[in-house]
Amino acid sequence: MEPKSHKHSSSKNGHENHDHHDHHAMMIKDFKKRFWISLVLTLPIVVLAPMIQGLLNYELRFEGDRYIQFALSTIIFFYGGWPFLKGLFDEVKKKTPGMMTLIALAISVAYFYSSAVVFGLEGKIFFWELASLIVIMLLGHWIEMKSVMGASNALQELAKMMPSTARKINKNGDHEDVSIEDLQANDTILVRPGEKIPADGVVLEGESHVNESMLTGRSKPVAKQKDDQVIGGSINDKGTLKIKVKHTGEDSYLTKVIGMVKEAQKVKSKTQNLADKV
Fold first, then answer.
1. Distance CA 231, CA 43 (A)
2. Can you list the domains of the chain with their CATH numbers?
3. What is the rounded CA–CA span in Å between residue 173 and residue 169?
4. What is the rounded distance in angstroms from the CA atom of residue 230 to the CA atom of residue 218?
5. In angstroms, rounded to a whole number, what is the distance separating the alpha carbons of residues 29 and 23?
6. What is the pTM of this model?
């Protein structure tokens, strides 16, 4: 029953990882779309902005130009700024105000104050500052999420390094192909030339070189002989190795590496937490 349970758990985790990956891809697509639409709408706002006209020494004023800026800024505020407004509510709800809160407050003050000026309040409008801030922050989040997605894809490639089956040697010396989920500590497996090593273990018989570059960064294959440690996911070269299994599943080197990278993606550094507080 234990192997079946383990298989079910692995399948469930794989399904969850796939769903998370798809969700992340959709979020990147959403940020990209919001960025480009907001950028296009920002251009006329910047051109009509009195401050920009003063800096570049040109004049483009006509009746109702402020209402055009207001209309375009309204779309940018509610469409382009939605991820930050939503982030504000999420952070306040969790009582952990951070960057989303800061951005949402900045764009909200700029939008509502400028809107009030358009409809009669005496003062200056800040529509171009509002629009440019949203565009810049959307671009930053889009780039950041693409970077995280790249790291997630790298993790998936690492996970693919582990073979799905292993050649187990029974007590009577016969070979049997089994799923790696069915391997247990102290099992004996046979790895032929060119095959991937299915689990962490110790060499019982044979000599070969093993390519561990994808796992350890070593560019040259490492010589292996009796009593040497081998890592699951590495590639056996020309010799045949008989290996005693030491670690499988969650205890394997590759799984621990993937787990550490995932945790590192989730956890903020002390500097980030300090910056959020400031």
1. 55
2. 12-160 (no CATH), 165-252 (2.70.150.10)
3. 6
4. 14
5. 10
6. 0.60
